[in-house]
Give the backbone structure.
Amino acid sequence: MYKTLARIEKQLAAVELDYLRKTYIATRLGLLDRATAIQAIPDFWSTVIDEAPAEIDQRIQPRDIPALSCLSGLDVERFEVTDADNGEPRSIKLTLTFKPNEWFLDDKIEKKFYWRMSHNGWSGLVSEPVTVRWKNGDRLTDGLLDLAVNLWKKELDPDTQGCDLSTFQEYQTLVERIQRIPQDAVSFFAFLGFRGHRVSAVESAAATEKARSMVDISKETEGSSEGSPSLPDSEIYPHGEEVAVALSEDLYPGATHYFTAAKERDAKVSDEELVSDLNDSNNSEESNASNNHELERRPNKKMKIHA
């Protein structure tokens, strides 16, 4: 019975992946056409971000808003998908495009997320910190992003392979900075420094192959029985995977819905303000008419409605 249940679960998972892959291929051209149309709509993406779901909205700090208001494009590419039948559809590349601003020298910032599986059964997204060319230093993330990049580069150095990371000055400086900044005060842009669990492509390939060969459900869950492992102390953005999924599977495909909802909300607020303003004007006129024994009411005050 357990073997049958395990086989069914694997089949269902495979169907979901196949659906995600085929959906991506089928909608890609339409989404690119949408991106072209959006260019004619001022502040489309900044409006969408303003209406973002909680997974994103709660990560945005007040100091992030001016930079996010310069967002002019967002693209999600499932870059490991080669066609409707092949490739890992859960790996994604996010491309953020910005209008000229006071923070970034480059108008495009790209970040890749790789779907990986570890030998202990964990699976999810991992990434590498993005090197951002700042105009006036890393003010947005209080230096966290630059420090994360420095540590990552140190790890890539052939001379440091196999060394204890905690002995590096780059590691100690980063961890000290992380400990000084409350998690609920970390900039949204620290998301660019998210790394996640340290699972290499080699380890993931071996773990994936092992999982495919298992038929006994008790063996299949053995590696994950200890629960999800903790992220390293040097992780600057623990919510990175959650935000990446919200951006790629909710905000990006539903951007038109969020934009429309924001405009409808703004229009409703403007209408309510207009009604309130007119009522205030009418009350004032009635008061004046009563005081001056006027029988004729004055014209109502008009208020401009901002889009």
